Amino acid sequence: MKLIYKYTLWYLLISLGVFVVGSIITYQVMKREISREQERFLRERLTFVERMVDRRQPDSVLVRDKIRVEPLPQATAETEISYSDTVVMHSTLERMEPHTKLEVVREVAGKFYHISLYDVIVEQDDIIESVRESMIKVYLLLTGTVLLLGVFAGLYLFKPFNKTLNLIRNFDLDRGQPIRQIKTGTQEFDRLNQFLEEMTTKVQTDYNALKEFSENASHEMQTPLANAIGKLELLLNNPKLEAKESQKVMGALDSLRQISKMGQSLGLLTKIENREFANKAPLDFSTSVTRALDNFQELIDLKSITLERSITPHVEVIMDPNLADIMINNLLSNAIRHNERNGIIRTKVDESGFIICNTGKPPSAAPDSLFDRFKKDSNGRDGMGLGLSIVKKICDVSGFKIDYWYELNEHRLEIEFVR
Fold it and tell me: Quick one: which of 350, 304, 349, 312 has its CA closest to 331?
């Protein structure tokens, strides 16, 4: 849900609660004011009745519209005005209606009279209905106004924010351009854009420095390693070298080759993570797998491995061609290296994905951890634990899903092409 809609919803819910409480308060205030006005009106009528009694001095009960005057014996005292609710016949409606009743004993011209006055009560239901109707209409007006303001805010006020989101979405480190600040006239958005410009400038600088360091380190490391490997190979060809010394030279040579290969693999991982392979294009994945299988055929034959192919022609995916070759070659290399003599390799390519299975010993490590860097199966001592990590990273940047499990004496690795 968008921020403006969430804000509008919360505002309306809170306003509804405020209107409910406000309705109760309004009802109490209206009821109190109406009661006061009724009592004031009855007191004014009492003054009029006293003047009328003073003129007439009735000897018997006097009854008029909503007035009753009853003479009392002399041995009586005046009382305070009291109010009560009662039911009296309404002369116009011709039915019993609630009334407010005023009662008092007053001395007029030396005589005492019990005076009763009545006035129609504004009923509680009428007050509640009036308050409810007014509050509902006001709340509907408020709701319509808030919704219109929300649409206006979403289209106009939040337009700079949406533009900033698009800039963030399209930001690419490889372009070498930070997000430039956009003046919006809104203080909060200007501060956000300023922070983004500062942050992306620093990220761009750090990225370029790290990229340059990685490339220089990889290049500078490979040069002395190549020299050392070359000299050790020359030394190994010396006929005067004894067998014991040859073994030591062979060990050093293998270590240097492994370091060189590790540097190349780590450099490749860094480039993949930095998305330097961004040339995504439609690729005939079936052809790439077939070509790789043909290239590995000699190694497969040397280990007497049976190769089974199930390749649907012209399966097309969107990915970088170089990454596709690296991924396929790493998977086939692992399937051969971790296979057993006279084993089996099964490959399958269709519209849903790529599956490669090979016989071999069960892994000693947890299946999920085999995709981590330098995490390798102890059964494969000649690996560095970077092959599957590179494959996993390629799948991530290509938008594929990868899974691995071991069952029925087979390693099964499946790549799902997410369309």
Answer: 349
What amino acid occupies position 291?
Answer: R
Residues with Cβ < 8 Å from 414, sequence gap 6 or more? 353, 354, 355, 402, 403, 404
Residue 227 to residues 224, 245, 255, 259, 268: CA-CA distances in angstroms?
5, 20, 14, 13, 22
pTM: 0.47
Q: What angle in degrees, to the nearest 10, is found between the helix axes of 387-398 and 243-273?
A: 10
The CA–CA distances, whole Å, from 130 to 39, 124, 392 equal 22, 10, 69
Q: DSSP letters of 59-121?
A: SS-EEETTEEEEEE-SS------EEEEEEEEETTTTEEEEEEEEEEEEEETTEEEEEEEEEE-
| Stretch 314-334: mean pLDDT | 89
Say how far apart CA 413 and CA 327 lie, in whole Å: 12
For the stretch 17-55, what's the b/e string if a residue is b when 16 or more beta carbons lie within 10 angstroms of its beta carbon? eebeeebeebbeeeeeeeeeebeeebeebbeebbeebee
Q: Which of 146, 156, 151, 152 is nearest to 10 (CA)?
A: 146
Q: Work out the percent of the chain whose per-residue pLDDT is above 90.
A: 16
Task: Spell out the residues 6+ positions from residue 382 whose beta carbon is closer than 8 angstroms to its own.
Answer: 337
Q: Which residues contact 157 (CB under 8 A, 6 or more apart)?
A: 186
Q: State residue 108 phi and psi, 5-degree precision.
A: -130, 120
Query: In this structure, what token pair is assigned to residue 223?
Result: 């040069």
Cα–Cα distance, 136 to 351 (Å, whole number): 59
Give the 3-state secondary structure of 327-375. Answer: HHHHHHHHHHHCCCCCCEEEEEECCCEEEEEEECCCCCCCHHHHHCCCC
Angle between helices 387-398 and 321-337 (to 10 degrees): 150
Q: Helix H segments across 237-347? A: 243-273, 285-295, 297-302, 321-337
Amino acid at 278: A
The b/e string for 128-166 (b: 16+ C-beta within 10 A; e otherwise) is: eeebeeebeeebeeeeeebeeebeeebeeebebbeebee
For the cut 70, the answer to whether the pLDDT of residue 264 exceeds it is no
- State the DSSP H helix or E strand holding residue 202, giving kind and residue range, or none if neither: helix 187-236
Average pLDDT over residues 361-365: 78
